[in-house]
Fold this sequence. Notes:
mainly beta, four-stranded antiparallel sheet, 2 helices, 32 strands
Amino acid sequence: MRRFVVAVLAAPFLIVPFSSPAAAACARVPSDFNGDGYGDVAIGAPRAHDPVYDVNWQGVVHVAYGSAAGVGKGAQANASFRGSTAGLPRFRFTGSERLGESLASGYFDGDCYADLAVSAASGSDMLVLYGSAAGLTVDRSAGFDRTAIQPEGEYGSGFSSDITTGDFDGDGFDDIAAGAPWTDANAGAFGVLYGSATGITNAGAQWIDQDSASVPGAAEADDGFGTALAAGDFNGDGRDDLAVGAPGEALGTLYGAGGLIVFPGTAAGLGTAGSTWWDQDSAGVPGGAEYLDRFGVSLTAGDTTGDGREELFVGVPSESIGTKDSAGMLQIFRGAASGLVAGSAYNQDDAQIPGDAEAGDQFGGSLGLADLNRDGRLDLAVGAPGEWAGTVDGNGAINVLFSTTAGPTPAGSVYIDQNSAGVPGDNEDLDAFGWSLGRVANAYGGDTLSVSANDEKVTYSREGAVTLLPGAPAGQARPAGYFFSGANFPAGAAAEANFGAGLS
């Protein structure tokens, strides 16, 4: 089972008319499902039990709507969706689907309401919910699986275990890329479904693996190609490109060293010609490939420099720092007119990054972007869900690297755990704070970071929780955070639910 869930975010929050002729002229705030200008929060609890069908690990998706008063504080009530919710595609999501393990929002049909793609990877399936003035509804909801792309395709691929969205063909409609890392003895693959005036369709859909024409390498057992995905316009041509992680890739005798492939966006959609391979032995990449590094297990992308090209951030949480196994590392690739350029790497033993690299920290296990100092540039949050605090085992933490015109820098970076000032709760064994990260735009006066503690005990064991951490201008104290659990939503709290495993 893939452990880390990454929230992929594309651009700083700006309320401007969207210029594409295919789209309505309106503000497009990330994850604004009801179009009121405030970002909303979708939270997956993939191991939640469904009492209607008496199914374990069926999963629930919870939604809290933003407002001037705060997230979940406005007139629109919080909502919950599960496989047995009336109006969803009948019998499509009623098994042990792990609904909500990965979530990604986008504007799939060109209107003024953000839509949501929801993983159901145990069934190799995916749910699409459309936004409206009333928020996300079951109206027009649709299910897609591998057979929507390949009619002869088999189940068991893990299709949608990670999801990202981007406009790969530049037509003004967001598209969906969904990883399928369990395909063909875990060699892996991914599928692409395109947006249109009517939403996501299977017209022009693509299924790509490492045996596809012009794709570097070859499909091999346990490569895990498609484990993590990140969409971003790396060369500034107006079309999103796609980075796809293969953390199980063997490099010679280095089993599980890992790598990734970047696919270019074109007017015809995502291309395989011109796709490029990166690993830690590639020219310019700091460090070196090693056994079980699992380079590419977490990814995110966004423009952190303000130059109109997006950077790619790669987590290597299993990287050893000296003798410290799985202490973890972050790799940064800079966007350029020619595509990605290898850049810098950081770990918790770097002098300007608070904390210390320790065995099992898994620094880089999750990655998220949000403008947390309110200067107009996205900052980088790096999760270390295995971090220890004193004698507390695996409470988890995050480090925030603030961006300059050169992108995120360790100078002035901050460390946050559940004992930090303004963070609700306390450090406890195995909370895994920082398991997944997301961005809430225009919340509490600007960007806010959502942070899950995937295994937090609130009322029940491994129930899970999410904390919203508002940003603040440099030099000002960060406002107190806000704590959410299943108890804040109609579906309620549940043991072992892993509330927060997916965030959008």
